Structure formats: C-alpha cells, structure tokens
Amino acid sequence: MDPRANAATAWSPVKDLGNLFALGTTSSELHLVSLDFSAVDAAPHVVGLVPTPAPFRTLAWSPATKHAAAHPWGLVAGGLEDGTVSIWDPTQISTGHIDALSTVSKHKGAVTALQFNPNKDSTHLLASGGAYVSTTSLDLLPCSHVFRDGDVWIMSVNNVAAPGVFSPGTALDSTSAPSEITSVSWNTTAPYILATGDSSGHVTVWDLKQKKPCFNVSVYGAISSLAWSPHEGFLLLTATRQSPLVHIWDLRASNSVPLVELHGHHGGGIVSAAWCPHGS
C-alpha cells in the first residue's frame, strides 16, 4: 500500500472476524487487512487487494444478516470520487476475486458519506450522501455556474447483484449556498429514520415511511459527526469542524434549542464524536 495515500476505514462487524478491517485509499485501491492482536509488534497482513477506477472517499461494512449464507464475511461498500458506490464480498476478495458484486451510479458528484443500517433486520439498507456539483454553463454569463446540492440515496441490497435505489424524500427548499452531504447516520432503534448533515451545517432527519423530513436544525460549521444515542432513539448528537461545541437534540422538543450543549477543550472544531455504547 502506498504509504503516502490517505484511506477510509471500516472494521469488520462480523462476529469472530474482529481482526479484519478494510482500507479504501486515495490511490484507488481497496485493501482487506488482518491484524494479529496476540503479537505486540506484528505488522498488518494484507489479505486481499482490489484496484478501483477512482479514489475512495468513504467506506462501510455490513454483516449482511440476510445474506449470511452466501456472504459469510458480510458486504463492503465503497463510495468513490467518480460518484459510484460499489459493493464487494470480502470473502471473495480474500481468495483473489476482485470484481464488485454490483455498482450503483446515482450521485452527480463524489460519494462523501456511507452507512449501512445497524438494525438487525435492516442491515441490507445502505445510505449514501454526495458532494455538490458546480458546472460552468455556456448559456449563462461568463464565470457563472450552475450548482447542484449534494444528494442522498437509499440502496437496498436484498438483491446484491442489482440493488434497489430510492430517494428518502423531498427536502425543504433552501436558499443557502450549495453544500455537500458530510455525514449520514441511521437511527439505532427505528430502522426507518435517517439523519443527514451537510457542509453548511444543516441537519435533516428523514422519516422513510413518510418519505419526508421530520426534523430540521442548523448549526455553525460543516457537520463532522452525527450520532444517535444507542439507547434513546430520539436523541441525536451533532458536531462540526468549525466549533468546539457538541449539541444533543431531542426530537420530541423544539428544534431551535438543543437539549444539551457540551463545551469541549478543543482548540478548534471537532473531527469526530460518538456515544459510549455502554452508557445511558
């Protein structure tokens, strides 16, 4: 692996395979890597390598519960710079098979966020977010541009070879500057609820049953983290790259004031934030 390349990472969620993780690099390679935790100084071992047509921006790994017999190591999804989402079987990668099981081309810009649904009966659902596109139009004045906001898609891999793709719904009209989706997060208790955040600080919570937003809030800075409480499905954490504040929102209350505002000791913004899975 090119030591100069950055990489998106995803740990194996499959029981008894906790020593495996995937790396999707900016040098357009997918690496399946094994670690030996019993050896203090053991180097990571590359189990398989897949060349890709474009650099990686994001990566996700699902246990793919419904497909456990056919894909015992689950499914790995990669979001690429060219706007495609490809899905691989890590079991096949480990035996030298490098072809993707399927590829979806719906995003207009780079794929910037991915997450498989963590709920047991919904691990076949994959949410993806994309970057906005700016293109110069010859029909407009010189130096003017047409902007297309980052888009959000839901993919169902019930049929892994031909995933179904649908929109979460119609977003509320926005007069703000164009933005890209920077984070997607499935609710931990309600599998039909999805939160998305963008580079303008807008957070939208989607109800996929109703196919429309059920909660909207705006904060200062580009959203770096969205995280649902592991035990209370109505509590959502938000953090941004431009502020040292972490906000926790209660979806049952007003969207104008957060339930909790945590003041961090960071010199700048927050790159990543998460709930303790064992806390309350």
Describe the structure.
This protein is an all-beta fold. It has 2 domains: 1-132 and 150-167, YVTN repeat-like/Quinoprotein amine dehydrogenase (Methylamine Dehydrogenase, Chain H, 7 Propeller); 168-279, 7 Propeller (Methylamine Dehydrogenase, Chain H). Helices cover 2% and strands 43% of the residues. It has 1 helix and 22 strands. The chain has one helix at 90-94; strands at residues 7-11, 20-25, 29-34, 45-51, 56-62, 75-80, 84-88, 102-105, 111-116, 125-130, 133-136, 145-148, 152-156, 164-166, 181-186, 193-198, 202-207, 212-218, 223-228, 235-240, 245-250, 260-263. The strands form 6 sheets. A 4-stranded antiparallel sheet has the order 1-2-3-4. A 4-stranded antiparallel sheet has the order 5-6-7-8. A 4-stranded antiparallel sheet has the order 9-10-13-14, with no helix packed on it. The longest helix is centred in the first third of the chain and has 5 residues, at 90-94. The protein is globular. Mean pLDDT is 88; it is low at 136-148. It is found in: Endoplasmic reticulum.
What is this entry, summarized?
The protein is mostly beta strands and 280 residues long.
List the helices and strands and how they pair.
Blueprint: E1 7-11, E2 20-25, E3 29-34, E4 45-51, E5 56-62, E6 75-80, E7 84-88, H1 90-94, E8 102-105, E9 111-116, E10 125-130, E11 133-136, E12 145-148, E13 152-156, E14 164-166, E15 181-186, E16 193-198, E17 202-207, E18 212-218, E19 223-228, E20 235-240, E21 245-250, E22 260-263
Antiparallel strand pairs: 1-2, 2-3, 3-4, 5-6, 6-7, 7-8, 9-10, 10-13, 11-12, 13-14, 15-16, 16-17, 17-18, 19-20, 20-21, 21-22
Protein name: Peroxin-7
Keywords: Endoplasmic reticulum, ER-Golgi transport, Protein transport, Repeat, Transport, WD repeat
Family: Belongs to the WD repeat SEC31 family.
